[in-house]
Amino acid sequence: MTRDPAVEAYLRAAADHMPGPRLARADILAELRSGLLDAIDAKRAAGLPEQAATEAAITEFGNPREVASGFRPHLAMIQARRTALAIAATGPLVGSLWAAAALASHIRLRHAPPWEWPGAPPLSAAAFPAIAATLLILIMSTVIAIATTGTLSRWLPASPRIAAAAAAAAGFTAVAGDLAILALLASQLTSAPGSLDPIPVAAATAASLTRLTLARRAACSCLAIRATLS
Amino acid sequence: MRAETLKGHLDGLLLASLEAGPRHGYAIMEALRSGSGGQFDLPTGTVYPALRRLERAGLIEGTWSQEGGRQRRVYELTPAGRRTLTAERGTWQQFSAAVTALLQPAPKPAMP
Questions:
Q1: What share of chain B has pLDDT > 70, as a percent?
Q2: Which of residues 19-78 of B touch A (CB under 8 A)?
Q3: What are the sequence ranges of the domains in chain B?
Q4: Are residues A204 and A155 located together in one domain of the fold?
């Protein structure tokens, strides 16, 4: 398919003002392209010569910056939803890997019941309530972000700013949760190095580090796109 | 007619334009323009974000399809969209009947 340079220039101008997930943007731009080509066809069918038809179609579509700004709330919702869904999916996975690591360390190495942590560092007493509070914030912000960006947005006062903020909060809380549990691990390693089962602990650490990196990046994207909303 | 005047009604009008069957974005725009006798002449680019919003709310569903050698995103009403359209239509009819009644010129006072 030969591409009309004027149409492509219009789409590039719109794309420049359209932050958000790559696939979602590509889908929007493809739809705008097919719409512009339809508009050009309609103008030519009405008797305009080729170049004039293209110009008229582009004028009819409106300023590319304004068209792009119309999509920004939609793109912010998609970014927020993706972030929150990814956290909802990875949360239980990372959590159960840590639970498995803790259980394995108890059962295989210490032969102690799970509520007894001989040689547990003093940090752990504060870390458990902190992790519980983090978990609560994490679940609440994830639920808000998912609820306000899906079909429930039919009834809920859907605000892309709130959705993006909630998703960013969920992302940063997940980062904080991962950091807390890694700090707990570090203190356990220094105070009682032999008390951990290496393989499940390494698997949980790898999962937490990966999730931490991705969650931080997604949360930053949510804040960045939120900043472009007027 | 200015875009702001239409703003609160655009969703209902878009749903109505899909009542007869699936349409792609440009055809929806043409339907609004010709159906209003040229009164609703919005910048075409503003219709597309509104369609995405309705899709996210589950009122319409868009799918890419190959049509006449061109990929087009074709939208159709979902059952929820159909119900919303019926409700919007009822609300509008009540509202417009009330406004019409109130805007009628008052009968001239009887001469003494």
A1: 92
A2: 24-27, 29-30, 43-46, 48-50, 52-53, 56-59, 64, 70-73
A3: 3-87
A4: yes
Question: Do residue A111 and residue A212 come from a single domain?
Answer: yes
For residues A189 and A159, what is the distance between their CA atoms, to the nearest angstrom? Answer: 45
CB proximity A121 to B under 8 Å: no
Helix, coil or strand: residue A220: helix
* Contact criterion met (CB below 8 Å) for A88 and B71: no
Contacts of B84 in chain A (CB under 8 A): 154
Q: Compute how many other C-beta atoms are within 10 angstroms of the C-beta atom of residue A151.
A: 15
Facing residues of B65 across strands?
B72
Q: Which residues of B touch A30 (CB under 8 A)?
A: 64, 71, 73
What domain range is A22 assigned to? 5-62
Are A23 and A87 within one domain? no
pLDDT at residue A116 tops 80 = no
CATH fold of the domain at B3-87: Arc Repressor Mutant, subunit A (1.10.10)
pLDDT of the residue at A189: 84
